[in-house]
Amino acid sequence: MTDDRSPTGSAVLELTPSAIAPGGEVTASGRGCDPGAQVELKIGRTPVGTAVATADGSFTAQLTLSAIAVGRHDVQTWCGRPLTAQLDVVLVSRVDSGASTLAILLFFLLLGGWFYGHRLISHRSTRRDR
Q1: CB-based contact 61:44 (threshold 8 Å)
Q2: Reduced 3-state DSSP string for the chain
Q3: pLDDT digit string, tens, across residues 33-48
Q4: DSSP string, 91-125
Q5: Using CA atoms, how far apart are residues 29 and 14, in angstroms rounded to an integer?
Q6: What integer pLDDT is reported at residue 104 of this predicted model?
Q7: Residue ranges of the domains in the chain?
Q8: pTM for this one?
């Protein structure tokens, strides 16, 4: 959120990165706060980080996000003016190439077993008919 009434220019809260997996690490940095202001960053009512604004009104804080659910969240603080930034907590899945190779191999083994079993059953019925 930008506030051009800030004495040091625009008031900004930035999150790096702005999208993470659950429990990931995020650094919040901001500017435009009152010098020496206590900065408490929250998601809803849950505190996720603290800092103290420097003489130029900037701050940096590491966020603690272990209890934050998957979804889009507004990270907010008040340091003489309101600052807000959005954070996306996303589920990330990755199929390892070894796992996919194993799955394909297993598929063909099962398919081959089915054909082999089917041939055994069909040959047994042919032998009995003779």
Answers
A1: no
A2: CCCCCCCCCCCEEEEECCEECCCCCEEEEEECCCCCCEEEEEECCEEEEEEECCCCCCEEEEECCCCCCCEEEEEEEECCCEEEEEEEECCCCCCCHHHHHHHHHHHHHHHHHHHHHHHHHHHHHHHHHC
A3: 999 999 999 999 989 9
A4: ------HHHHHHHHHHHHHHHHHHHHHHHHHHHHH
A5: 5
A6: 82
A7: 12-89, 94-130
A8: 0.62
Residue stretches of the chain with pLDDT short of 70: 1-9, 94-99, 118, 120-130
Options 2.60.40.10, 3.30.70.3460, 3.40.50.2000, 3.40.50.1220; CATH for 12-89 is 2.60.40.10
> Which residue do the tokens 């800030």 mark?
6
- Those residues whose C-beta lies under 8 Å from the C-beta of residue 18, and which sit 6 or more positions away, are 85, 86, 87, 88
